Amino acid sequence: MQMLDRVSLNAIRVFALVAKHGSISLAADEFCVTASAVSHQIKNLETHLGVSLFVRKNNSIRLTDTGLSFLADVSPGLVILNQATEKLFRDSNEVVVRVSVTFAVRWLIPSLERFKQRYPAAKIRLETSGFADVSLDPFSDIAITYRQKGDYQDKEDTLLTDYCCPVLSPDLLAQSGYRQSKDIIHLPALKCTENNWDWGAWCTEVGIDQTTIDFADQFDIDDAALRAAVAGLGMVLSSDFMIKSEVENKTLVKLPGFEAVELGRYCLQEGARKDGMVEKFKNWLFEEMAIVSQC
């Protein structure tokens, strides 16, 4: 028991972070300490426990079988500890939401005023990601993630099914000489997803050979590609609710001759907090998305 009393909780947290990253240097960066300090913590932990947690070879590090077992055992406790600590400092009216940059700037932020009008005391903390596939972390209450069609998960609640079609600037459409659907090959297309999966799925659904599409510029997020489309650089795939203001201002139009097709879903992931303002925000999201789906 005395030996166990000497095991540092911080060393266990360091161990879990090294295991997560598979790297001492990355763990050190996250803790804002030196790599040697992290190595010292790991070595002390192994000494106190009397086991080897990692195999070190050729500047790489990986968990031993014992390390894998230890990680599985301590991880739930670390999550509970992090949540309990966070709860002490959190305002009960605060809701931490993780979401992609595009979803945040194109829909959520412009819509938040309606939630704040209903619940003036609410404090929303947005954490954005350049990736659409967003996930919860121990400190977030809600994550709005994107699932490609065919990758849906039963444990996640669907907020909105994503129906997309090509959109472009009116000037580009007029200048291109586009008259019918087969003329799509004369229009530049913009890429903004990993492996260009959205265009691949869309082409399959509408029966177009993807290799005939003239792909031009590439962007790391949808919002940037949509802004490029407004500037006349090409067409991009989008759902209606993402381009509401551009359609109203007539800076983007749908490409004639094509119907929107289902490419994926926006899904909701819930953290440990499921009451109070978190529950109010979740219910509001479903109400808003129901309205969007009817438009």
From TrEMBL:
UniProt cross-references to Gene3D superfamilies, sorted A to Z: Periplasmic binding protein-like II, Winged helix-like DNA-binding domain superfamily/Winged helix DNA-binding domain
HTH lysR-type domain residues: 7-64
Keywords: DNA-binding, Transcription, Transcription regulation
Family: Belongs to the LysR transcriptional regulatory family.
Name used for this protein in its record: HTH lysR-type domain-containing protein
PANTHER family: HTH-TYPE TRANSCRIPTIONAL ACTIVATOR TTDR-RELATED, HTH-TYPE TRANSCRIPTIONAL REGULATOR
UniProt xrefs under InterPro entries: LysR-type_TF_proteobact-type, LysR_HTH_N, LysR_subst-bd, WH-like_DNA-bd_sf, WH_DNA-bd_sf
GO molecular function, one term: DNA-binding transcription factor activity
Pfam families on file: HTH_1, LysR_substrate
